[in-house]
Amino acid sequence: MYITQGLHRSMQQQPDAIAVRYQGNGLTFAEFGGRVARLAGALRSLGIRDGERVAMFSLNSQRFLEYLMAVPWAGGVLNPVNIRWSAAEILYSFEDSETAVLIVDDTYRDTGAQVAADCRSLRHVIYAGDGETPSGMLGYEELIAQHEPVEDALRHGNDLAGIFYTGGTTGFPKGVMLSHANLYTSAMNSLMAGSLGKEARFLHVMPMFHLADFSAVNSLFISGGRHVIVPSFDAGTMMESFASEQVTDVLLAPTMIQMGLTWLEQNPDRAAQLDLSSLTGIRYGASPMSQALLARLRQRFPKAGFMQGYGMTELSPAATFLLRENHSDEAVSSGKVRSVGKPVNTVEVRIVDPDGKEVPRNTVGEIAVRGPNVMLGYWKQPEATAQAVRNGWMHTGDGGYMDDDGFVFLVDRIKDMIISGGENVYSAEVENALASHPAIAQSAVIGVPHVKWGESVHAVIVLRTGASTTLEDIQAHCRAFIAGYKVPRSIEFREALPLSGVGKVLKNELRKPYWNQ
Amino acid sequence: MYITQGLHRSMQQQPDAIAVRYQGNGLTFAEFGGRVARLAGALRSLGIRDGERVAMFSLNSQRFLEYLMAVPWAGGVLNPVNIRWSAAEILYSFEDSETAVLIVDDTYRDTGAQVAADCRSLRHVIYAGDGETPSGMLGYEELIAQHEPVEDALRHGNDLAGIFYTGGTTGFPKGVMLSHANLYTSAMNSLMAGSLGKEARFLHVMPMFHLADFSAVNSLFISGGRHVIVPSFDAGTMMESFASEQVTDVLLAPTMIQMGLTWLEQNPDRAAQLDLSSLTGIRYGASPMSQALLARLRQRFPKAGFMQGYGMTELSPAATFLLRENHSDEAVSSGKVRSVGKPVNTVEVRIVDPDGKEVPRNTVGEIAVRGPNVMLGYWKQPEATAQAVRNGWMHTGDGGYMDDDGFVFLVDRIKDMIISGGENVYSAEVENALASHPAIAQSAVIGVPHVKWGESVHAVIVLRTGASTTLEDIQAHCRAFIAGYKVPRSIEFREALPLSGVGKVLKNELRKPYWNQ
Fold this sequence. Notes:
Oligomer: homodimer
CATH class of the domain at 30-179 in chain A: Alpha Beta
Number of strands of chain A: 27
Structural class of chain A: alpha/beta
Distance between the termini of chain A: 56 Å
Low-confidence stretches of chain A: none
């Protein structure tokens, strides 16, 4: 079991089918596989030995996809760089993992060079941009042109395939070691859920360094589906790509979904010209989908089904799926749509107490996961590994409960519910309403103490450049979308929201000043 | 990755859902899993150590399904007995594999006892029948009642899960060693093909000792679908079960499909009362589906899709699937329906020359297969293993070619095509027509030499008890179903057809007398 398997299969089965579309150009599986085998040859000639690390620091591109296949093909180990990190964090991860080769694109050329200058483990930097190769770097296209294709090293099973650094909230990040079997079995879960099959045309709009997107990469190679790539998220580019590439599937953060809908509303003439009917699968993660957002999406994408995934890097990454059928009106009214769904096929999920014993249903505990997708461990951190993985069970550190039907609910989400005057208000729903306000770029909704109602709805708002608004205006806007008791009672403006390493809003930081008093 | 994983998941996720239906009774996953864990406890107390072999010699039953999960749960290795074998062959396989425990049902109690009397490796015989436990045997239900449930041994990955003996045409059979990962990944292919999901109710009518059925067992445990079991094939029982259990999926040999249709035609009153609308997935193997048979099936099962699998025990077992969409009218007219389809997701298939090099498309060679489903090897036969599996590629010994679209065609089938006066006549199609004749129990159609046409169509026929017919009568019957040039020009009657160990008609033996002259 090895993550290049599907590429081999498609090179043999459908050599002339389009493997990847990027910036208006297409490559067949034969062409793409040929470039991968040559890039692998170049990496070998640069001294990459079995199990050695190769990093990529880049926006999304066809070359990123080539990297993801060429490194395992060469026998190496992936280390995709979180593009939101500081140079210091990147340097740490390279030296910690003893990364030998770095590939950079135009966007990260300078930061990459800066890191490389300080890094003791790096032997080579490859420039995968479109300009002239900077001195001290090797040219990506030249390397491919100069090297013959090599045979796949066929590392497999429990062999290390990649080290994926997770943003530690305390101290420096940890390197999560994932094997070929981890990644391959995880990728099969999407296919077993009826998603990302051979007819799929998937838009890589989430950053490709992120395991959520890489898992889709692996699913698509297994099925033989098509990759469509855009450099990064931009609402307009995304919508144009949906139409021009007849995209069928996409993975998005809920905020991206909102921004996409807002773009359509703000560009009605262009929106009317776009044929978005091909989009049938919208996957999302990290936060629930509100009834209001679901309704808006259904109107725009009547054929689309929705699927949510919950997981973490240590789980390669999915542990649960909230499937299409769990987004029905019934699922909305029963509240199942606020869960993260049920364990994926290859996985068992239990809610456990501190002793590792399963707690009764509807009781909050720690979410523990067992299956072939559980990581090999943390790189060079046997103690942290032993603490996280006990008897084969990954202890996620996430709080949650399981209901009588086996649906898993995250406590983070429960915490993110505001109880105001006995009514439940879900922050996400209010944030959805705020997102369509023309002056608002971003928002985070929290509960703040209130003498009469217990909590009241408070919105922290980042304005669009040059825009202004008032509480009254915002309240009037929200009333068109959500019930009166959900409308913010107070607001504050900020320059930016505090974000975690992976881009989640740190709501606890926002809550702190209100609740500490 | 271990084959009991799905059972654990369902015991936790849907303890009260029905796992298995047999003889009008149902067991929930909690009940079934509890029995499995107790039976595993009994096996351990009988001294079954990790990796030790336990055989089952039985018709299909709920207890057979329990055996298939309890042996790996106990850490043991499965050895399901081919019920068509002679006592000598079974004895050989037990001693070859050092099988320590045998479980027998009522049907095979006496043969089992006979084998046990001669077998040096067997320590215990367990009687899994409904009568009184014979002396010298242990009672299956008593063992379950007397033992506490034990923890799953959790053997996994490349650990040996079963030894599956294949009928060798020369000498004694070979024991194919399959690991947990072999069986588990193979089972996922069905799920990735959109079959045997959680809503499935699968009828086990093919013998459960056979890997084709066991693969469905594993798929269903992974998805959490329902098992419906009948002891063995009987056309009427099968149709009644389809209706009473609202079966959605079934795996059948093409002859069984014909016999089922014939039963419906011969029992029109009962057939009219049966609601067969739940059946949506009909899988078959071993021979192609003729246009005539497809048309008959579509009329009876308008909602059903068809899927063919090709493989062998050494491949756990599927290598290719001919999917639903490859049974369209277009696939019939293009001839794709006569192929075995394309490689399953986890597999690469190549047609190779004797040096192992891939031959050009449409060129006949040996079918070679690579993937995580390729066996560990032949038990105690390293030389035979090295000959079969080279560089990870299983050399099947089957001749075939691959067309420009990647569909694989078996040469056996090409040989089974008769060329008469320049027209291609597929034996299966003629056999399908013959199967609906009221006097004919079985038939095999071959080409025999003909001075003018090259070959002419000849039918070898086994009559139903007490029935008689004539060539003219048969020709008149066939003309209602197939074109004139496909109608047999000559016939012969036999008491029985010569069969291989796995029940395939040995057509070469039938052809020999005509072609040797």
